[in-house]
Amino acid sequence: MHGLMFRPERASTMAAQVDNATLFLLGVCGFFALLIAALVVFFSIKYHHSRKADRSNPPTFNIPIEILWTAVPLALCLVMFAWGAHLFARMHQAPPDAIDVDVIGKQWMWKVQHPQGPREINELHVPAGRPVKLLMTSEDVIHSFFVPAFRIKQDVLPERYTNIWFEPTKIGSYPIYCAQLCGTFHAQMIGTVFVMADADYQTWAAAPSSSAVADSSLKASGETLFAQYGCASCHGARDQARGPSLAGLFGSTVHLQDGQTVVADENYLRESIVRPRARLVAGYAPLMPTYEGELTEEQLQRIVAYLKVGEKT
Ligand code: CUA
After folding, report:
1. Do residue 184 and residue 85 come from a single domain?
2. CATH number at residue 239
3. I need a labelling partner for 231 at 20 to 30 A (CA). Which of 34, 160, 174, 245 fits?
4. Is residue 214 over pLDDT 70?
């Protein structure tokens, strides 16, 4: 029941900040809700038709009051907006040294893939004191990855990557929930984050415990797929007539056929594999076949992981 408590344990660097913002929102809303409720009761008694209240000369327009009750709520709302937007932006900009972990949601489980290879289901092992970035997608419907102890929650969408990051501060285990109604067993789409000491994590990653499956690293299996599907025949070390080189592509700005530009992030890489014609690189004919339905989300994440490393030959 611990995870269902009103204020779960704070186990990430972001937790206290999220709590402060939440308490501010609750405080402001609670104060005005009580104030308004009290005034409603007070005036309904004071001006009850059986009472002899002074009803002459009702107030019509009062400039100072109009300004006051416009400016004060506006200022409070702007504080809420700026504070919330600041936290939201921070939660989605992982530090550059974050460990990249891939997460796939499906009815009804969480599949996790670590960069060095271990795969696990409904469990996520991470080291304490290091930022972890989750790159997430769904195989079917919308899910939402929610770890109350870290104060993070992010929708996990089909056909798109979303990300969130956290830095765990306390060794222990914390529940993962799915926070988006996703079908019959939504309530059972739960898991556990295991926060370990850094040394224990290194040991675990090298030889994962029974619940996880060792696998070749994301980058290596992405490279295998890249070769297997013959990607290199058009995307070589240098630009060719048929296709641009993918070396150093990740994070760069790509000029498109329609004159627009796009930053080559994970979503762009994924889209270019499943729907190559959606945003065609300037100067190239739409020759590439679609791989939609041919590659699983796992395979797509591996290829994307390989492309992110940048050394294509
Ligand atoms: Cu997945 Cu609810």
Report:
1. yes
2. 1.10.760.10
3. 160
4. no
Q: Let me know: does 28 contact 80? Beta carbons within 8 Å.
A: yes
Of ligand 1's listed atoms, the one at least distance from the Cα of 187 is: 2
Q: Would the CB of 103 count as within 6 Å of ligand 1?
A: no
**Closest to 86 (Cα-Cα) out of 24, 11, 177:** 24
Q: pLDDT tens digit string along 186-208?
A: 999 999 999 999 888 888 887 76
Distance 145 CA to ligand 1 centre (A): 8
Burial tier of 125 (Cβ tally within 10 Å: 0-12, 13-18, 19+): buried
> Which of residues 215, 249, 268 is at a domain's end?
215
Helix (H/G/I), strand (E/B), else coil: 22: helix
178 lines ligand 1 (CB under 6 A): yes
Same-domain check for residues 135 and 269:
no
Ligand 1 atom closest to Cα of 181? 2
Q: Express each pLDDT in 267-293 by its tens digit.
A: 888 888 888 888 888 778 777 878 777
